[in-house]
Design brief:
Elements lengths: L10 E3 H9 L1 H10 L10 H10 L4 H21 L6 H20 L17 H4 L6 H20 L1 H8 L5 E4 L7 E4 L2 E4 L4 E4 L5 E7 L7 H16 L7 E6 L4 E5 L3 H19 L2 E3 L4 E2 L11 H5 L14 H10 L12
Parallel strand pairs: 1-4, 6-7
Antiparallel strand pairs: 2-5, 3-4, 5-6, 7-8, 9-10
Helix pairs in contact: 1-2, 4-5, 4-7, 5-7
């Protein structure tokens, strides 16, 4: 039997759009420069870029740990297994301790030690001097979010679901995608179920606060679920649940909302494909056609700083530079 050939096909997602909007060069390195970096015969440049693209920052790491343990709790409830809250917290803490040591030692560069579940942290790669209290704050974010979830009504809501009401618990990219105007769109919801009336509800867990783009993200979930389960997108109930704030926000899905998402998608795809030499085969133009951002705060959280010659751009360095800059002169009424 022949091996499956992995091809770099063009696709779209909200995260891809955000990467493209934030920095064209980081977008190029993430989706094109790093391609094939996992293969034995990969160039050294592609191998390094592939390792870098997999790194997270400490804030995303905390969110990923919360998501993973909520997913495991829900799957245990679905399988009618017992859930013990303190044991969940203990496993999360132990996992973060293992992750931190793995990342601090930069073990992600060792082919034999690479882990699929955790790929290292940008802060360790660039030897950023993160104070111990900042790392502890990361754990407190995780602990607070998980404690809220474990004490929230969501546990009993999940336990009350009948087997046929469970639809999805973080299915992954292989299943959670749909076709939109000939482009594969990825939208991976955290938790999907049918309520007693049969209406589909999708839940997206968040560890931070509401920010721009979250609503568009759940519109994508509604469109994916409409495609998969053959229902109108307007019938899908969409909830953003902020576990560290203890808040739930319902996002209304109606025709204007769907149309706005469609226009965002079309404009984004058009801009991305304008930088391709061959759109059908997803062949990009040279890296020079993908300029680096001028917003250095984007660089401070980017894994590709070294590739861009901006290795020393960190939040601490930017803050120090701001503190040294002279304060702008106040505009007085007479001067105006």
């Amino acid at each position: 039997m022949g091996q499956n050939v992995i091809t770099n096909d063009f696709s779209w997602s909200k995260s891809r759009h955000e990467k493209f909007s934030g920095c064209r060069r980081a977008y190029f390195l993430h989706y094109y420069g790093s391609w094939g970096g996992w293969e034995n015969g990969a160039s050294e440049e592609a191998r390094q870029l592939f390792t870098l693209k997999r790194l997270a920052n400490r804030f995303n790491w905390a969110g990923n740990v919360v998501h993973a343990h909520i997913r495991d709790v829900l799957r245990n409830i679905q399988a009618e297994r017992a859930v013990e809250g303190e044991a969940v917290l203990r496993r999360a803490h132990q996992q973060m301790q293992r992750d931190w040591l793995y990342s601090r030692n930069k073990s992600y560069w060792d082919e034999g030690k690479r882990r699929p579940d955790f790929t290292g942290l940008v802060e360790h790669e660039y030897d950023e001097p993160i104070p111990a209290e900042e790392w502890k704050r990361n754990w407190h974010t995780v602990e607070q979010g998980l404690r809220w979830f474990l004490a929230s009504p969501w546990i009993e809501r999940a336990r009350a679901l009948k087997p046929q009401q469970w639809l999805e618990v973080d299915e992954g990219a292989q299943k959670s995608n749909f076709d939109m105007q000939g482009v594969k769109v990825f939208a991976i919801p955290d938790f999907v179920f049918r309520d007693e009336s049969g209406r589909i509800t999708v839940v997206d867990w968040k560890t931070g606060q509401m920010r721009e783009g979250y609503e568009d993200q759940v519109v994508g979930y509604a469109l994916y679920l409409a495609h998969r389960y053959r229902v109108p997108p307007e019938s899908v109930r969409c909830l953003l649940v902020f576990v560290n704030q203890g808040q739930e926000v319902e996002v209304r899905i109606d025709q204007p909302t769907v149309e706005r998402y469609r226009l965002l998608f079309e404009e984004s795809v058009r801009a991305m494909q304008a930088l391709l030499l061959n759109a059908a085969q997803n062949v990009p133009a040279d890296a020079a056609e993908f300029p680096k951002t001028e917003d250095l705060t984007e660089c401070a959280r980017c894994a590709f700083r070294r590739a861009c010659g901006r290795e020393h751009v960190t939040y601490a360095a930017l803050e120090a530079e701001r503190s040294r800059a002279p304060a702008p002169a106040q505009l007085t009424a007479s001067a105006a």
